[in-house]
Amino acid sequence: MLKIKFCLVVICSLWVCNAFAQDQLKESKYLFFIEPELMLGQTVANYNDFPDTKPVKSFFLSVGIKDTRNIHSSKYYNHPTTGVNLSYSNLGNDSILGKSFGVMPFIQFYPWGNRQKRWSLKFGVGGSYFTKSYRQSNQNLAIGSHLTWSFQAFLYRELFALNRMQFRMGAGYLHSSNGHTQLPNMGLNSAQVSLSCQWTSRPLISKKKDIYLGANMGLNRRYFINVRSGIGVHEYGGKSKPVGRW
């Protein structure tokens, strides 16, 4: 009789562990997405004799995941989104500035944790290839080499969602520079607005809990200030020519 009870306890324990593991597995699944995005804006003149430009037209294709796992690190950051942007931009003056193609990893946060507003911030750092540089046109002081670093900072607002599709509008800032590795390098800046449609691997709305998977949060937070310092070597170089010395 004791053996039968022991076997029953073991079977029940295994069943509970298996059910718990399956629930955890379901909760740990990521939400995959793909998002085409159209942008329109204007380059920002940052030096004298900056060439005249028409509106900048860009197309971004983003692929990535939404972290919907029910773990502390994911909840603390309001289930962030990470992925990679593939981009193409017509810079408004093909003969001088040319066009650019980019690859940029990004992370997107929902810092306010308010599912009614559904605002988000997106930051990306990557690289771009420019078809025209200073070597092809001496009027192009913005880009000194074909390969540059690129930076993106955007604010997004969800317009509405339909099952697996989320329509959004955004506005932000794009910057490209080679870090003065080849001069002149004034850098190219543009302010743009965007419209996008994000398609996800499963619905954004949970019918059981009726929550929005992108911005649901109820954790307490503690704020802090972090101060950092460092020491290093800097080469004194201007944006258009070398200046000073080591």
UniProtKB/TrEMBL annotation:
Species of origin: Paralabilibaculum antarcticum
UniProt keyword Cell cycle, yes or no: no
Claim: Signal is one of the keywords in the record: yes
Protein name: Acyloxyacyl hydrolase
Signal peptide: 1-21
GO molecular function: hydrolase activity
InterPro entries named among the record's database cross-references: Lipid-A_deacylase-rel (IPR018550)
Keywords in alphabetical order: Hydrolase, Signal
Stored Pfam families: PagL
